[in-house]
Design a protein that fits this description.
Blueprint lengths: L11 H12 L3 E4 L2 E4 L16 E4 L5 E3 L7 E2 L1 H7 L9 H6 L23 H9 L4 H6 L3 E3 L2 E10 L5 E8 L11 E3 L19 E5 L2 H9 L5 E3 L9 H9 L4 E5 L2 E2 L2 E2 L2 H7 L3 E4 L11 H8 L1 H10 L1 E2 L21 E2 L4 H6 L4 E2 L3 E5 L6 H14 L4 E5 L4 H13 L6 H11 L3 E3 L12 H12 L3 E5 L1 H4 L8 H19 L2 E6 L17 H4 L3 E7 L12 E9 L6 E10 L4 E4 L26
Helix pairs in contact: 6-9, 9-10, 12-13, 13-14, 15-17
Length: 600
């Protein structure tokens, strides 16, 4: 067999790491590759060339770039070449690919093509279950010579060779001694029952039990097979894979258990073509195909197979079923910077993940804090995470921006607290109550239990969970992916602050970390100090807000909207506009001036 992936190998990153451990070589993660210090095939050659051997953690393909070595292949190749070092893909895959001759170790029956005598007791029992005599004889169902109460089910492969046998005690009483079903002792090849009676490669119908597949055959449904060891056993999958994938589709006719159909989820996940599943209502309250046959007749089985539906993920929706929304009337939350709001569609929208970036110390966190104040004024409850500021500092910044009149007294701060009380919540990064709670857990709680609709995360690197088993880029990608899902799933707005790379440009690739950070964002903004023609910072407190990505309206602004920063109030506003007043006038306490003499 060649090295192509005829059978899907799952969890490739874990298998690649397992290979590294088995050969005992140092390696480092570079993007989606694991790069080894020395090639395990050539050991770097006479010159001990380093970093020439890499394995993709996505596809499992590997290659040594030394021309005199040139080793290449995939995980199957490695399993064959390094079996003596203990590296394995697992028993099932070793069997499927016949790595180290494992497939040759299956036991075989003598006279495996010899017809089987069908005994009367088998015919009588299956007649009592609604299975006609001709079906019993066709599938060669018999009984044990010394125990005529035990049915024998012969499993023949597509060539007609007997490769497996299963037994069933027809007099078994639940809770009594012995087993209801058991398999032939020894390492025999587990396949699907009824393979030798399949007529073509159109539709294959798979049931859980052998009597169920016989029931379908009794209803003249062709290509009916059943699994060898119940709903949880899939050792048959690699053994029959090449035969299985020849079929155009599979219909799953498992047992009905608790409103679900057994085998449906597993087969839907691994079969690369169409999978249809018998609808629960077509069981007519019965448990399985045989009960349907006995209570409703063969026509009900034919209808059930015909009406079986593809199980489509809940993430796939008919476009006509999507809510009709007028984009001009969508809920939006202004940022308070008119030029920015005009460009992004009046402000931030629900369901968006937006990113704010900018160099350290140039005002992006201040701008983010001001947006929080604006959201509170908009009537939007906020949940904030600040990985760099302690909670008292975050509050002090927000208080200054909210008060804004230069009178930063205790009375003014109390008024500010009354203004945002119950409207703004902060992640307590000093708490050690539950170290297992993640930022994502707390976002979900703030949204569900507190009604927060705007989430600020400042910043990406401090908010992520530390997972030693994942490289940094993968952690970033997964974290941002989850944030995007939360924004859409909870219909909230998330503003994520992310640092740029050092000495980087203004494009989205300049943001430090995985490319998925900006790929998953709706809007990417950059906040930075304005510079003169020589590249030096201007001294007039002018900054720029640039839009480098905008899925909402498509409008970009690489030059930036000029805004002015007022150090006294920490407020940011456009040059032709006054700083926004956040609190209503009744919140701002009256501060009397010193008494003077009456001037008359």
């Amino acid at each position: 067999m060649n090295d192509s992936y005829e059978y899907p190998i799952e969890n490739i990153p874990a298998i690649v790491q397992d290979f590294r451990r088995h050969i005992g070589r140092r390696a480092k993660t570079v993007g989606d590759q694991l790069v080894f210090g020395y090639c395990p095939y050539c050991d770097g050659g006479d010159n001990h060339d380093k970093d020439t051997f890499a394995i993709s953690t996505v596809t499992g393909q590997f290659e040594c770039k030394r021309s005199s070595c040139g080793a290449r292949g995939n995980l199957i190749t490695l399993a064959r070449d390094f079996a003596d070092r203990g590296f394995s893909l697992g028993r099932e895959l070793n069997t499927y690919y016949n790595i180290d001759g494992s497939a040759a170790r299956f036991k075989r029956f003598k006279d495996a093509h010899r017809p089987i005598e069908v005994r009367p007791r088998a015919i009588d029992y299956l007649l009592s279950r609604g299975i006609p005599e001709e079906v019993t004889k066709k599938y060669e169902i018999t009984t044990m010579p010394e125990r005529d109460n035990v049915l024998v089910f012969p499993f023949r492969d597509e060539t007609g060779e007997l490769v497996f046998v299963k037994y069933r005690d027809t007099e078994y009483v639940k809770g009594g001694p012995g087993n209801k079903e058991w398999c032939v002792a020894g390492n025999y090849k587990k396949i699907l029952f009824g393979m030798n009676h399949c007529e073509d490669f159109g539709t294959l119908v798979i049931t859980e039990g052998q009597i169920d597949s016989l029931s379908l055959a009794a209803a003249s449904i062709k290509n009916a097979v059943s699994v060898p060891t119940g709903k949880n056993g899939f050792t048959w999958k690699p053994v029959v894979w090449n035969w299985l994938v020849k079929f155009e589709e599979i219909v799953v006719f498992g047992d009905r258990e608790g409103g679900e159909i057994t085998l449906a989820k597993e087969i839907s996940q691994f079969f690369p073509k169409k999978v249809r599943i018998v609808k629960v209502e077509d069981y007519h309250g019965c448990k399985d195909a045989n009960e349907i046959l006995q209570k409703c007749g063969p026509g009900a089985l034919v209808a059930a197979v015909k009406n079986a539906e593809a199980r489509v993920s809940l993430r796939i929706r008919n476009l006509a079923d999507v809510d009709m929304v007028d984009l001009d009337t969508m809920t939006y939350y202004p940022t308070g910077i008119k030029s920015l709001d005009d460009a992004i569609g009046h402000g931030f929208h629900e369901g968006e993940l937006n990113i704010l970036t900018g160099k350290a110390g140039e005002g992006k966190s201040t701008f983010a804090s001001q947006i929080v104040a604006k959201m509170i004024k908009n009537g939007v409850k906020c949940f904030c995470y600040s990985g760099e500021l302690p909670d008292y500092m975050f509050r002090a910044w927000l208080d200054k921006q909210v008060i804004g009149n230069g009178v930063y007294t205790e009375a003014a701060r109390n008024a500010a607290a009354a203004w945002y009380d119950g409207k703004c919540f902060l992640y307590d990064n000093s708490s050690v109550i539950d170290e297992h709670e993640t930022i994502k857990d707390l976002i979900a709680q703030a949204v569900r239990d507190l009604g927060c609709k705007f989430v600020l995360i400042d910043n990406l690197m401090t908010a992520m969970e530390d997972k030693p088993t994942e490289d940094l880029f993968r952690q970033q990608s997964n974290f941002v992916k989850e944030l995007s899902r939360y924004a859409k799933g909870f219909n909230i707005t998330i503003l994520l602050v992310a640092h740029p790379r050092k000495n980087s440009g203004d494009d989205n690739d300049s943001i430090s970390g995985s490319g998925d950070i900006t790929n998953r964002a709706n809007i990417v903004m950059r906040f930075e100090r304005a510079r003169d023609n020589k590249g030096k910072l201007r001294t007039d407190n002018v900054s720029l807000i640039k839009i480098t990505k905008n899925r909402t309206t498509g409008q970009l602004n690489d030059q930036g909207f000029p805004v002015i920063y007022e150090p006294e109030s920490m407020r940011i506003h456009e040059a032709n506009a006054k700083p926004e007043e956040f609190m209503a006038s009744e919140y701002i306490p009256f501060e009397p001036s010193e008494e003077d003499e009456i001037p008359f």
